[in-house]
Write the structure tokens for this entry.
Amino acid sequence: MALKITVIGTGYLGATHAAAMAELGFEVLGLDVVPEKIELLASGRVPMYEPGLEELLAKHVAGIEGSSGRLRFTTSWEEVGAFGDVHFVCVNTPQKHGEYACDMSYVDAAFTSLAGVVREGALVVGKSTVPVGSAERLAALLPEGVELAWNPEFLREGFAVQDTLHPDRIVVGVRGHGERAEKTLREVYAVPVGEGSPFVVTDFPTAELVKTAANSFLATKISFINAMAEVCEAAGGDVAKLAEAIGHDDRIGAKFLRAGIGFGGGCLPKDIRAFMARAGELGADQALTFLREIDSINMRRRGQMVEMAREALGGSTFLGRRVAVLGATFKPDSDDVRDSPALNVAGQIHLQGGQVTVYDPKGMENARRVFPTLGYADSALEAVRGADVVLHLTEWREFRELDPAELAKVVASRVVLDGRNALDGERWRAAGWTYRAMGRPRA
Ligand code: UDX
């Protein structure tokens, strides 16, 4: 009989994982402790913007016309315990308030609740990003006869559905030989493994570390190119050309070498901090002191963008000056504004007296919630109306497709600063703009 799967925690990761499991043919039950979330999902809608996710849910959520009916949602732990052969724990692990370490309270609560209801012989699979050593501790909370595996998740926002259905690797941490856990997870992931996704089996600590190591590497790559941007700014070089040229070396690779205002979001910043905190607890802090530098290079870029804007406005004050900000989310194709560099820059300028107007294709609602005192406009054209300077801070396709000649008619001053190195500078210059990008010559 086909395995019955539960997904505990239906945020970004969980909602996507649940829909993907239903797509792979399993009967799935998703649980969340927030009833409003469950209600929304049960009607086939998602509380965030993620391309393709709503369509996938509608295809499987029970009760929706024409759906497979394989996906249901609940708030009942008893139901979850009775239903599941495999339980995926997908709750979030945010940064602790005022500390680098991550907050494990949701994971701990999920394991405690699950432990009270899980059937003997079931498999519990952790997917949340946790400090190394957690799996060993959490395994002890589960009753006799219930195995634990650790299966980190690597999905990117904006590509969550694709990354979940066609993962570029599946990593499984098991205890001892863990043959039963491995066999069960090979069954769960039979389709992607059949399509060629590598299946890497290892121990608990290595599986936990794979996730934090991967995110640390990506953060390092971005901060590396941003450090090069700083040097280019001082030396009159062009970081975009430099990235293109070093990217041809396939040991380096061209991806994640886009210089700009740096990384943000719900993962990279908090994961590298939690990693440093955990290494400290383990007495291995020296190994990760470089991540402190990665973090500060990254944060410095936001300040540098503010300074570029100040300079474009004559070098002294933002008081009374109108600043248009294109982009609020931490990356395009997402409505997520958590630790968003774009919103951070907009906020800094606003706090220094600038009159900031923000437009983002999908992030307006979330941005307003986080930063209600900023100005917001309903379109890029409205945002730039009367602006003394235009800041391009999230690289949405919509912004690349703007007609600089149209915008030129409504701004007070034709100056655009590209914080993502993504606009076509030549096109903007041809339309009469002063175009400046981070880490590149003034032209
Ligand atoms: C990341 C990891 O990529 C993913 O594997 C993990 O599971 C979760 O964390 P995500 O947070 O969705 O995913 O964002 P990602 O695409 O990695 O981008 C992170 C940030 O880096 C964004 O703010 C993006 O704008 C920035 N970035 C990315 C750059 O500044 N330059 C680049 O070249 C690439």
About this structure: Residues 153-157, 215, 218, 222, 256-258, 260, 262-265, 267-268, 330-331 surround uridine-5'-diphosphate-xylopyranose (CB under 6 Å). The first strand starts at residue 4 and ends at 8.
